[in-house]
Amino acid sequence: MARPQTDHEAAAEKLLAAAEELVRERGPVQITITDIANACGMSQSNVYRFFPSKEALWEAFAERWFRELNEIMEEVVASDLEPREKLYQFFARRLIVKKARFEEDPDYFNSCMILGDEHRDVVMSYVDLADHYMAMILAEAIGAGEFKGMKVDRLMTLVNLMLAPFCDPVLMVRYRGATPENLRYVIDAIFEGFGEADAVAPKEMEPLRIAS
Amino acid sequence: MARPQTDHEAAAEKLLAAAEELVRERGPVQITITDIANACGMSQSNVYRFFPSKEALWEAFAERWFRELNEIMEEVVASDLEPREKLYQFFARRLIVKKARFEEDPDYFNSCMILGDEHRDVVMSYVDLADHYMAMILAEAIGAGEFKGMKVDRLMTLVNLMLAPFCDPVLMVRYRGATPENLRYVIDAIFEGFGEADAVAPKEMEPLRIAS
């Protein structure tokens, strides 16, 4: 994960870490800029130098939540994996991170889901970004001769539906079977079905290499 | 749908219809046996002849909710459709009914979801029943040479995961793409993937016939 490069970034990061701590302690409700300022021993007006509004602070909070997930997507898309393995890792690596976050502190995780519902537009911009990356992977698969006759729009919809329990953080928790191993089967089904399961036995995740 | 056969059943049905009306008016909270008795102009002790406890009443309420859905499953399982078409209709017919119920009265639908969460054990018995029927269809498909090398337990888990937005009533509403048309594609993917989409073009639902 990228580390803050400047004093300004370091101070902003400190404020966001304080906001996270407050959400962990109290849940997502009624946290003010004053609370966050106090937690950092900073004046309220000083906090506004970093975040001109509460909304700006929660946007940065969301950016911090999605940072690692976005890095995973970028890495996978830029790699030289085969399209199928790319699609698998695109979902599997984020599933593993999200599950670990949930297991580390379920209450905090659920608080972040509530914050996400309250800042729906911000979250949707990250969902759109994920769709954009997924479209790139599916286009690559189509370029490699897969999904003949299927329009990309429909394919996107179908893949999002089939993988919902592996991707939507709310469902991931509701559906215990949403494991990386089962994800492998579902990705294989997208390409060739379960018709001959010998062809879709689980395999270890391949290492990432960056496409030259 | 089966109609009440006896006076006893007719009176029980009247009480359940009154309970439904109260849930529609007030939402799922704080409805008592007294409220339901009053709505039917019946004494409280008379109501207990039909439902010995509030829990018994909500169990019957759930049975009434699931009746049509169970009849669909029974009909599809007993039909002579090919396994793939059977699996499709097993989900598609219930999806259509559930969506129609939601659209007819979204608030009532959501109230029933909350009631379902409060009576989790009752709902789970219907989920188990649905799993039982699905296992029969998948066993038939396996008997017809599909899913070679795949264990039924895993196959059940995978199919339930892939079809979650088409089956789980909470998700069905959250995922707009959960249409019968898209379901057809996903069922086809389970059997043969999207590898060659020409093979998985949507088709009209076939009529049901009972297997002789």
From TrEMBL, chains A, B:
For this protein, the record's InterPro entries field holds: Homeodomain-like_sf (IPR009057), HTH-type_TetR-like_transc_reg (IPR050109), HTH_TetR (IPR001647), TetR_C_27 (IPR041478)
Q: Which Pfam families match?
A: TetR_C_27 (PF17935), TetR_N (PF00440)
What GO molecular function annotation could you give as one example from this UniProt entry? DNA-binding transcription factor activity
Q: Which residues bind DNA?
A: 32-51
**Which residue ranges does the record assign to the HTH tetR-type domain?**
9-69
- Note the superkingdom of the native organism: Bacteria
Keywords associated with the record: DNA-binding, Transcription, Transcription regulation
What this protein is called in its record is: TetR/AcrR family transcriptional regulator
